[in-house]
Amino acid sequence: MLERGERVDDSWIVLGQRTEEEGHLTVRRTWLLGEDTRRYALVLQFTAAGSPFAEGFVSGMTWRGEIAFYPGAYPLRAVVRARSGDGDRFEGLPGHETVEACLDHTSKATALQPWLERLPAALIGVVPLLDGAPEGGRWLIRDRAGQALPLAGGEHWTLLSMSGGRPVDLAAEWNGEGLIPLGVAAAGTYRILAQEG
Amino acid sequence: MDALTRAAVAGTSRETPPASGLPTDGLLGSAKGKSLERNLLLRAGMRTVYRTAGRVAESGIEAPQSAPDETIPACSAKAAELLGRLLVDQRTTILLEALERLRLARLRRPHALLPGALNVEQEELRPAVATVLGERGRWLARLNPEWAWAVGDDGDLRDVWDEGALKERTSVLRRVRERDPALGRERLSETWRETPTGTLSTAEAISVLTGGLASAAFYGDGAMIASDVAAGLTGTIVKDPVQDRVAWLEYLQTVVRERKGWKDLYRECREVV
Fold this sequence. Notes:
The complex is a heterodimer.
Chain A: E1 7-22, E2 25-34, E3 40-48, E4 61-69, E5 78-89, H1 99-112, E6 119-131, E7 138-142, E8 148-150, H2 157-163, E9 168-174, E10 179-186, E11 189-192
Antiparallel strand pairs in A: 1-2, 1-4, 2-3, 4-5, 6-7, 6-9, 7-8, 9-10, 10-11
Chain B: H1 3-10, H2 36-53, H3 77-89, H4 92-104, H5 114-118, H6 126-130, H7 134-141, H8 154-163, H9 166-179, H10 181-194, H11 202-219, H12 226-237, H13 243-256, H14 263-272
Helix pairs in contact in B: 8-9, 9-10, 10-13, 11-12, 12-14, 13-14
C-alpha cells in the first residue's frame, strides 16, 4: 500500500501528540506539519498496553525527512520513511493566519473525507480568551480580524497564562466543534499543552 | 426536535423522513430503490457533513484586555521545576523559604506555571506565592474567582492588614510596598502611631531595656541615655539586614524624629543603623 502512497520530503515540525487507551491497546497520534509544503500529517502508532512505541517524536522539534502518505481522498495518515535525528527547535509555525483560512482547510478536508474525526490545525497570531466567568464561560481564540473559534477539551489556563491576552501561535486538533490545544508557541518557546479540567 | 430527528426516534413506519431543505438534498438522487431507513441515514450523514464543513467563525467577540508588561524577569527553568515539585509535595517550610528567596532575588514564576501556583491550597503559603506571581499572575487571577486572593485587591489586603497576625501583616505590607511604596509607608507609620510597641514583643522590650541598663551601669554613671539603648534596640529590630533595616529607618524618620524629647534616640539610632 505504501508503495502507491505519495512521498513528501520536508522539514517536519512535531506539533504534538495525544495518547489514548483503547481496550488493551495504547494509541498515539502524532501530528506533523511540513515547513515548506505546509502539509499536515498524522503518524498513528499502536502498542499493547505497557510496551513502548517503536518510534519516538519530540513535540516542538523539527526534523528533515521523507514521509509516505497512505492513499486516500484526503491523505493525512503517514509513515516516516527516513529522518535525520530529532533536529532543532522550529522557528515560526507555518500555520493559518486567520480563522477563516483555518476553516477553509477543515472544510475542504471534511468535504473530501467526511470520516475524519479529528483534523490538525495550526493558527498563528491568535489570542486565547475566556468569555465570561470560568463557571459557564466559553473558551475561545480570536484572530486579528476579530473572528473567533471555540476551544474544546476542558479549561485552558496554561494557554491563557502564556498568552497574557496577546497573540500566540497555537497547534490544535479540530474535532468539528472546537480546537483541542496540542501546543503553544509564545515568546520564543514552544510548550506542550496537556488537557486540563 | 427537528423533523429528521423525530423520524429517526419515532421510526420510519410512523414518520416519513422529510427533505432537509439543505442544498445537499440534490445529492441524494432519486429515492427510488432506496428503503426509507437508508434514505434517512443518508440524509442524516449529509446533514452532519454539511454542518461540519460549513462551520463559520464567530464574530463580535471582544478582544481581551492584555496583561501589563512584567517588571522583573522569570526564574530559571530549573528553579521553577524545583518549586513546582515542592508545591506538589506540599513541603510548606521549604516552600516558604524558597518563595522568600525568589522574592529577594527579584524573580517571578514563569508564565506557563502560574496556574499551578495559583491553585495552591494551603492558605499559609498564599501570601508568599502572591509575591512571585508577577504582573501576569495578577492578571490571570482576576479571571478566576477562586484566585481572588492573588489579585492584590486592596479591600482584601486591608482586612488582613487590620486583623491579621504579624506574619500575615508583614507579607501584606511587602506587597503593598512593592506596588505603592508611599502607601506602604503611610500604613506602617499609621500602625506604629497606634501601637508603638507593635514591632517588639514584651520579652524583647525587656531585654533591650536590661541591656541598656547594664551598659549604662558599666560604661556610664548608671543613668540610661540614648546611646545605651540604641544598639540593643536596633539589634533586636533589624533581623533581616535588608528589609528590616529599611523599615527601621522609615520608622525612625517618620515616628521617632517627630516625637518630642526623642531627638537623642533618633540621632543615636541613625548612627547605629
